[in-house]
Amino acid sequence: MQINRKIILLGAGMALTLGGTVPAGAQSLVSPPADSTRVLTLQEAVELSYRQNPAMEAQRIAREAAVDRRKSAWGLRMPQLGVTAAYTYMSEDIKAFDLNGEKNAALEQIGQLPLPFPIPPEIIQAVKGLDLSLTLQQRQFAVVGATVAVPLYTGGKINAAVNAAKINIEKSDQEALRVQTDLFAEVVERYYGLSLARHVLRVREEVTAGMRKHLEDAEKLEANGMIASTEKLYAEMYLAQAEGEQTAAALQIGTVNRALGASLGQTADYLPVTALFVIDELKPLSYFQERVKRNSPILKQVELTRRLAAEGVRAARASFLPEIAAIGAVNTWDWQLTDLAPRWTVGAGIKLRIFDGLSSEYKHAAAKKEMRQAEVMQTKAENDLMALTEKLYNQLKSSAAEVHALGASVAFAESYLNAKQKAFSEGIAPSSDVVDARLNLAKAKVERLAAACTFDIALAQLLALAGETESMGSYMHQQDFQIITNEH
Q1: CB-hemisphere CA count at 13 Å for 421?
Q2: Angle at which helices 359-425 and 157-223 cross, to 10°
Q3: In angstroms, rounded to a whole number, what is the distance separating the alpha carbons of residues 175 and 326?
Q4: CA distances from 427 to 186, 232, 254, 313, 419 (A)
Q5: DSSP, res 21
Q6: Which among 75, 73, 68, 59 is positioned nearest to 164, based on CA atoms?
Q7: Residue 258 pLDDT
Q8: In b/e form, how buried is each residue of 234-252, taking b as 16+ CB within 10 angstroms?
């Protein structure tokens, strides 16, 4: 019967982990869910967090913004078209010449000359009315036109901006991947944390029930005069303590459940059904370190930061080079504009900074230092991740060994408790022995579950670090896969 139970537990754990159907007979693994309880496998929890966690949505929006910025950078290569409108009021008209003053002076002199015949007044008035000037531009005029400018050479500034925008998209992708892997590790930690909390509650319930049964036995033995009243009081004291610990364990479930709901993006009373587990056979440490170097989004982000700094150096260097552009303009409408003004113009211009207060030199020097800083941080990040990988790997090994060691402790504690209960019922062992034996059994059970939970969380963190979160399920198909539960 015990062997069949283990087979059912193993099959249930693997099926639930893959999001499959719970095999018949495996429902005894978990408490029957209430109407408001949502049964949840680990795979369902991870997929739900990917869809609904606000951090994932924020990264999707950030990537869209990065794509828009790249399109904006590409626009720097395109012709710049514009519409201009201007109204001008000058102090006076612009004239090519003005002989009206000379004309008036001549008419006065003619009137003083002794002519043989008088000049008719009509002729004099007609001459006075003549305008002997040529106006090139009236004092008021307005122009509406269009302009175009095409950058021909900017010293590499536009290329640097376009490349930087492309790198920022890659950084956004790696940041999204980092957020996803961090979210995976967070969900696994909170999912198995909730599973552990529920297991602990069951252990505390067992302790409370055992302490209550022990108190009943003590009351009977006291009534028969087999033990002193202090033995019964001792049992009462530890029953109260067990009830308090059971209440604390129930409250802990609510806290962890709310944390899991925050990761999943929705609130519910979750019942995790993917069992805690351990495995003994792991790939070598060198494998995980190599995968971290190849796949870690943190290292890729640091590398992209270095490349971005290199583009910053390129953009700063462009300040020392000339800028060349083709330009053109056309007047589409004008009012009182001289006919001598051209209707369209085309040309090319060049701009070269000679001196700008050494601003360009300092910007270039700062950009080179930022690139050097990125290179140093890249080395540090790789060293830190290698150390973290080794730490998690060693934690996996030690947790698996601790689970197996505590398994023996649980078996011994169960046997020891049975012996002390039998001795107490026969009146040859004090109540304190039974209480201590039961508490030691509960302690061993909780520590074994906690060690398994630590193993699963460390495995998730290691896989997240190596960029292999999708391979979590494959570890549950290994031959040495072992479900950890107090049911067996």
Answers
A1: 17
A2: 20
A3: 40
A4: 51, 13, 42, 86, 12
A5: P
A6: 73
A7: 96
A8: bbbebbeebeebbeebeeb
Q: Give residue 22's pLDDT band: very low, low, confident or very high (50, 70, 90).
A: very low
**Tokens 């050097």 label which residue?**
372
- HSE, side-chain direction, 13 A CA sphere, residue 234: 16
pLDDT at residue 6 tops 60: no
C-alpha span between 461 and 127 (Å, rounded): 103
- Could you read off the pLDDT of 130-156 as tens digits, one per residue? 767 778 888 999 999 999 999 999 888
What is the tens place of the pLDDT at every residue in 412-456?
A: 999 999 999 899 888 788 888 888 999 999 999 999 999 999 999
Contacts of 307 (CB under 8 A, 6+ apart): 167
One-letter amino acid at 256 equals V
Angle at 449 between CA 443 and CA 451, to 5 degrees: 100
At residue 61, the pLDDT reads 94
Q: Got the DSSP string for 417-445? A: HHHHHHHHHTTSS-HHHHHHHHHHHHHHH
Q: What is the DSSP letter of 201?
A: H
Rounded to 10°, the helix 297-317/359-425 angle is: 170
Of 49, 128, 184, the C-alpha closest to 456 is 184
Label residue 120 by pLDDT band (50, 70, 90). low
Do 460 and 470 meet the contact criterion of CB atoms below 8 Å apart?
Answer: no
In three-state secondary structure terms, 26 is coil
- SS3 state at 101: helix
Determine which of 27-41, 179-193, 282-296 has the lowest per-residue pLDDT on average.
27-41
Chain centroid to Cα 139, Å, comes to: 63
Return d(Cα 424, Cα 436) in angstroms, integer.
Answer: 12
**Residue 89 dihedral angles phi and psi, to the nearest 5°:** -130, 120
Label the pairing between strands 80-89 and 140-153.
antiparallel
Model confidence at 473, pLDDT cuts 50, 70, 90, reads: confident
Place of tokens 């494998």: 287
- Selected residue with higher pLDDT from 109 and 171: 171
Nearest to 263 by CA among 206, 189, 203: 189
Q: Is 324 helix (H, G, I), strand (E, B) or coil?
A: strand
